[in-house]
Amino acid sequence: MTDDCVFCKIIRKEIKTDKIIYENDNFLSIPDANPKVNGHSLVISKKHFETILDMPNSLGPELLDCIKKTAFKLMEEYGAEGFNVINNNFEVAGQVVKHVHFHLIPRKKNDGELNLLNEVFFEFFIHMKINYY
């Protein structure tokens, strides 16, 4: 763990979270502090890894367990019909907190949030075309 990492501080209980959605030996899921939609949650590794590339493969089953159990709880609690799992790695890909984490975003039919994602991808592709092609 690192001293200044916000997620490490949550794991060490130096920063309080409203609730823990699910927890196993190596992962924890909590509500996002700045949710994009109701139920937007994070799955966080308890050990500090900067990106998914730093995580050992042996943690894969436990990570998947935490993602699935969190998703089931979000679908039940928020009446979601589906969900997005998003993981950003490195600043260029949108990673803000340098501690591996996954966003789980509950979805409902016609919720309009997919349009937000399409806008983000459109802006990204325009940026790529202007700067690299």
TrEMBL record:
Protein name, UniProt field: HIT domain-containing protein
One of the record's GO molecular function terms: catalytic activity
Annotated Pfam families: HIT (PF01230)
Domain HIT as annotated: residue spans: 6-114
GO biological process: nucleotide metabolic process
PANTHER family in UniProt: ADENOSINE 5'-MONOPHOSPHORAMIDASE HNT1, HIT FAMILY PROTEIN 1
